[in-house]
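A reminder from the course coordinator: this example appears on the midterm review sheet, so study it carefully.

Given structure:
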């Protein structure tokens, strides 16, 4: 039997509370596709700026996402494959037959992710 100890149960409960907010799940499902700027996240999710900033801050402080500054822009990525796998597992509970993004750009400071429409013209990686 794999009985979790009380400390581990407490840490896991905190993590689940962190992930149990619909807007955070929207953000994380988007970040499965790669690294996005705050403006891109706002446009793609429809979450307003003040709420988005709060949710990104909570996810960052919780060790779920990592920011990367590129010039004046900040791009967010899921911090590691383990977190990405957990998000995909949670999303699969909604649609068991659907395959969610199987690869994710893991946060690595200073490493370009993908080219967005904005960066293709301005030569800034996003």
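Designed residues:
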């Amino acid at each position: 039997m794999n009985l979790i100890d009380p400390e581990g149960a407490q840490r896991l409960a905190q993590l689940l509370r962190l992930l149990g907010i619909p807007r955070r799940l929207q953000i994380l499902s988007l970040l499965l596709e790669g690294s996005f700027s705050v403006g891109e996240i706002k446009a793609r999710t429809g979450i307003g700026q003040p709420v988005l900033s709060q949710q990104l801050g909570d996810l960052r402080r919780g060790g779920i996402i990592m920011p990367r500054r590129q010039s004046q822009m900040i791009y967010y990525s899921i911090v590691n494959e383990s977190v990405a796998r957990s998000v995909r597992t949670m999303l699969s509970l909604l649609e068991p037959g659907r395959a969610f993004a199987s690869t994710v750009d893991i946060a690595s400071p200073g490493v370009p992710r993908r080219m967005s429409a904005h960066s293709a013209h301005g030569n800034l990686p996003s």
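Helices lie at 6-19, 22-31, 38-45, 49-61, 81-94, 117-122. Confidence is low (pLDDT under 50) at residues 108-126.
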